Amino acid sequence: MEVSARNFLKTTVKKIVTGSVNTEVTLELAPGVEVVSIITKSSAEKLGLAEGKQAYALIKSSDVIVAVD
Amino acid sequence: MEVSARNFLKTTVKKIVTGSVNTEVTLELAPGVEVVSIITKSSAEKLGLAEGKQAYALIKSSDVIVAVD
Amino acid sequence: MEVSARNFLKTTVKKIVTGSVNTEVTLELAPGVEVVSIITKSSAEKLGLAEGKQAYALIKSSDVIVAVD
Amino acid sequence: MEVSARNFLKTTVKKIVTGSVNTEVTLELAPGVEVVSIITKSSAEKLGLAEGKQAYALIKSSDVIVAVD
Amino acid sequence: MEVSARNFLKTTVKKIVTGSVNTEVTLELAPGVEVVSIITKSSAEKLGLAEGKQAYALIKSSDVIVAVD
Amino acid sequence: MEVSARNFLKTTVKKIVTGSVNTEVTLELAPGVEVVSIITKSSAEKLGLAEGKQAYALIKSSDVIVAVD
Lengths: 69, 69, 69, 69, 69, 69
Hints:
homohexamer; Mop_domain (chains A, B, C, D, E, F); globular; 1 helix; molybdenum (chains A, B, C, D, E, F); CATH 2.40.50.100
C-alpha cells in the first residue's frame, strides 16, 4: 500500500504499555532513537503489536514541528 | 524549555526546499533515518535553518499512526 | 496493511485539482457523500491518483469533530 | 454557522460508547458508511448526542490521508 | 451550533494575508493577544472574512501543546 | 528556543484536572480568555505545572479552524 503521508518509517516495537482505553507504543527507529505513539487499546489489539515485531510509524509532514535552541 | 509533546527528537537538517509559501525540511534522526516536515517559509527563515545545523523534531504522540504489514 | 487509525474508508476518486504545491482530491464515499483531502502534489503523483480510481481515506478518530445544530 | 474546514458532513449518530474520560461516537454518513469520532465525555454530554439523532462530522481536509493498494 | 472541540473562542479579525492557495488570518482574542490561522483561500472567501469582523477560533484541546521555560 | 509553530502564547495556568491517564489544563491568555489543553498525566508531571505558574500554549496555525455566524 502507498499513502500520501510523507513519513512512513520502518521501526521495531520496543515497549507497549496498555491502559484502560489507550495503549502507548514505543517504536525504535534506530538504536537509541525512539518515537512514542498513543493509539486506542482496540487498535493495538487489532494490529497484533508485540515487543520485537516490526511496525511502521506514519506521520504527516505537517504534524512535525521544527525547533532550534 | 520543556514541552508536553512526547516526541522531541534531536536531528540534523539534511535538506531544505523553499517554495513560495511553505518550506520542506528534511531532518536526519540517525544515519539513513529521516523525517520530513513542512513549515511556513517565514517560520523557516525565523528559525535560521540551514543544512548541517542541529534542530529538533517535535511530534505529538497522538499524531503517530502505527501500521503493520 | 493494517493501520491504527480507526477510519479507513473505501472511496472512488471523484475530482483532482492540481496546484503548484498541493493537490486537492475529492473522494466519493457513497453517491453524493464526498470528503476532500489536501495532499502534496508529489504525493498525489506518487500514488498515481486518477479520477474514477479506487482509493482509501484514512482519518484518525481524534480528528473528527462532532457538531450539532 | 460557516466553518473554514472543508468537510462538514451530515450524519446520523449510530452508536455511542461512553468511557471514563472519552466517548466514542459512530456516525453514519450513508447506509453502511460510517466514521468514528473520539471526543471527551463532557463534550458528548454537552452536545446531547443520542443514537438516531442528526449530527455533523467536521474534518479538516489536511487531516484526510489518501492511500491506494 | 455546538461543537465537540473544547476551545471555541470569540475573536475579531485583525489581519488577512491572501496567498495563491492559502490565506493567513490573524485573530485577536484580547487586546495584544492574537492567534494565527492558515485556511484555504476558498474557505476564507466562503466565510466572507474581513478585517474588523467577528469570527470564532475553533481549536481541539488535544492540539494545544503546553511548554514551560 | 524557537519553534516553527506560529502560535506560541504566554499564559498563566488557571486550573489543572488530573485524570487517570490525561490531565486537562486550563490556560489563561488574558482576563476571561482561556484555552483548554489535554496532555498526558506524565507530561503534566514532567512540566511541573501548577495553578498560577506561567506556561506557553503552542498551537500550529493549521490547527486553528475559523468559524463565523
